[in-house]
Request: fold
Amino acid sequence: MGVRAETAEPKLIKLGSSLFPHNGSSSWVSPSGHFAFGFYPQGTGFAVGVWLVSQSGNTVVWTANRDKPLVSFNTTLEFTTNGKLLLRTGPGEQITIADVAESAASASMLDSGNFVLFGDNSSSIIWQSFQYPTDTLLGGQNFSTGDILSSRKTESPAIGDFYLSTSDGQIVSYPYNLAVSEDPYWTVDARDLNDMGLLSSYDAFTLTLASNNISSDDAKNETIIYRATLDVDGIFRLYSHSFGNSNISTVSIMWSAIKNPCDVKGLCGVNALCSSNGTNANCSCVPGFVSINREKYSGCYRSFNNEEGCRGQEPESIYNITTLRNVKLILILASSLGSIAFLCALVAMSSFFIYRSQVHRYRKLSETAMEEFTLRSFSYNDLEKATDGFREELGRGPFGAVYKGTIAQGNQTIAVKRLEKAVEEGEREFQAEMAIIGRTHHRNLVRLLGFCMQGSRKLLVYEYMSNGSLADLLFNGEKRPIWRERVRIALDVARGIFYLHEECEVHIIHGNIKPKNILLDDSWTAKLSDFRLARLLRPNQTGTISRLGGSSRGYSAPERQKRMLISVEADVYSFGVVLLEIVCCRSNLDINVSTGDEILLCSWVYSCFVARELEKLVEGEEVNMKTLERMVKVGLLCIQDDPSLRPTMKNVILMLEGTMNVPVPPSPTPLFS
Reply:
């Protein structure tokens, strides 16, 4: 089988050309007829993309604006007279397909499967679909550092659950939406992908299929086209499409990155189990859960209809009291009858007190059976001993210091916060933290273990966070944390805030979100701490009056500084500032910069965004530029002066994950105006 290069001249598409979904002009075809660009049907609408043409069924290899809604039959795809490629979806409504500043002179659907826009001559390509891969790579298509290949959803071309990228000379695959995806479920050295001579790498950072995509066998009069696709199930596969005399193709899997589909992390979704017969995955729910959607891998949810379904039993039925086996006590008894009588009395009295103690404990437990967790009450002496006389100070805030300690029972390391402020504010601080943190339980919130309230002494006991604060990581480290870790930390923080705003029992405004109050545990999971300004919102209440001082200047929303009614959007603003700090690894106010324009981070970031110079924000660091742009846009949306223009934390998470389109942010108001 010989490999031949593509020699056909491109068929040029002239300015002013148009396509329509419902007539004979719905696509532009390559010279060989193997590839087409235009409208293809999807669900109840249409999408725009490139597909491999076959009478046995077309195969979509690229989709434009894949996360935007499908378009209707009355949409027009237009290559305008001024050289722009766009969709007209209604009067005055248009969607750009090719976002390029330069105007094109012509376009073409090439035999390689690459749709291109040409400049002044047909050899000057100013835009090409190969630069923006979706879920498939074709021959001659580079896959470089910063590029991402994302699987599609089962029911639409939108970004699915898995992605593939390059990192340190390796090709790696991750799940998108798992809470923790630090380790790839598949990895391989880029230089090892040479199966059948069809996959190769130019260097440690660029993957390409064989540069000549189309091969032929003259004896069999057969044409073969290869593609590599990250499928819906998260497995990267190499396919061949063999065309004979007719335009009917035979599709074969030539290579698969993973043999057992259950090796794909998160394939079955949350709370689900995966089993495999070698080729197909079978998903089932863990006991007590039911499938969200039996027709696709969506995970499972708890099998009760509402909160009452979980509380329908009497408290006593929640706990099982088991009689322990008898413990034999070997006693050396005196032979006298008096000794025996004394021991019997002693045993009887002991049994009575033990019984009364157990009954008391059981009653106390029953009274709190509806609570998820019970906070432990410590004495001051307990905590003084645990901290060795409050010897090792971890940090200090406006309401007191935090000390490291160890609980002897279980040898657990703790952090003890001793409230030292004035009685009025200290009382409010203590009551707020007790009321709020004691009822919140989330992997991205620092857990409150207990408290001490002994006279004027008020202390809180937290889980110990071994890796310090986000401020230490971003601003005080010798080198920047790697990009992937920063992206994960940003999502951790966003999920913690979302829980406070929408998922916990009482909706909460945190009120003090900044890097010093974001702590990192031993696995570098980011967790929100310091609820000293937290506000609980009653049902149907949307805001509360701020009593904020000046300690969080730079992170405070404008409405807080003006002592106006505040809402959860104030936390969104603070998160936006923190997000931009995570991106740039610098504080929002820094006078040790090269130019005055860089002093205020938010203003500088917006200037770089408008000038399309985002690479300045990361100082030559190797990052995913698409993710960088997405994070910057989200951060700028969050810091809008008007609270109504800020996104919800739910939408922030969806945008950061890449599952929701990020609109272009307007100019934010400078923080220190």
Notes: The longest strand covers residues 159-167.
